[in-house]
Amino acid sequence: MDRLAPLDVRDVGCNEYPQMMEIGHTVSSEPIPQKTTRIKDVARAAGVSTATVSHVINKTKYVTDRTRDSVLKAIELCNYYPNAQARSLASGRTDIIGLVVSDIANPFFPDLVKSIEMAAFERGYNTILLNTNYDANRAADYVRRLIGLKVAGVALMTAELDPVLIQELIRKNISVVSQNFGRISEHMSNVVIDYAVGVDEAVSHLASLGHRHIVHVAGPSQLDATNVRRDAFLSSVARHIPNAKTGVYEGDFKFEGGRRAAVEILAADELPTAILTANDMMAFGVMKELHKAGLSIPNDISLVGFDDIAFAELTEPPLTTIRLSRVELGRRTVEALMNNIDQPREPGREVRIPTYLIKRGSTAPPRLSKH
User: Domains in the chain and their CATH numbers?
Assistant: First the structure.
């Protein structure tokens, strides 16, 4: 028997697709131009029920790989676009996750956003990005908006948030992953960044170089993340450098906050031999003011940052800093969030993210020992 010629599925329409495949036609994979394609058209094309199509789209029930592939192919050929609003009404949630960050202008966050967005996309979810600019009232407003949008989950990569709002998300059956919140429950997972390990490595490194006068530029005092890093610094100095001279200056996690803290440090009666900042952006601000004052890094003052953002190795000198992997943080945040969404009655997870020191050119033995 002669082989049938290739058939353009546009000549027969979406509904004839199964029959053409059964009698041996080679079917073009080009989408079918349909004015309005309904879910029952896709079901007919795939030879399944509309309920099965719905389960494939919404991931609400197990479907065999063969059936799922057939449905996905029919969706493509029929040029079918599921009605997101209808799906939301049917399931009580959307395929959207909210991502709340503190400061998108900080180079730390774009890498984190990219990692979370990619991991969510691979699992069929879209991401809404919300930037609080370290404003607790703005963060609260964003959380209420996300509740109104019926998002499937929220990743709270910010410290300036009232715990009451987290509980409100949980009461609305919205899955949550927060950063260093410390509580695990239904719908709730927690990402714990192990600040203390990296800080301890940094202080140990400075102590081994001979530093005995080290100060810390912290973030805003009202934020838990600030207190965790500050306490880790003070504890580590007490452990590694008995009778050390130390001090804490308040910043704001931004470049200008680092500059202001550096002005205070320079005005003190005695300059420290080393400075450890709570993030790299403030380290850059400190570096700017030290250079402006005619001081050399690290010959006059050693400097250590935190985060290891891309610019850290491009400064002069390259910045010694504590690395926190944004790629790992983003990937594991989404994994925990998907676990909450897929298993809403199970307790959430605690995810621990390590930190560790990256040594570069901004640290050296203190100036007094050199003389």
Answer: 9-82 (1.10.260.40), 90-193+326-352 (3.40.50.2300), 195-324+357-370 (3.40.50.2300)
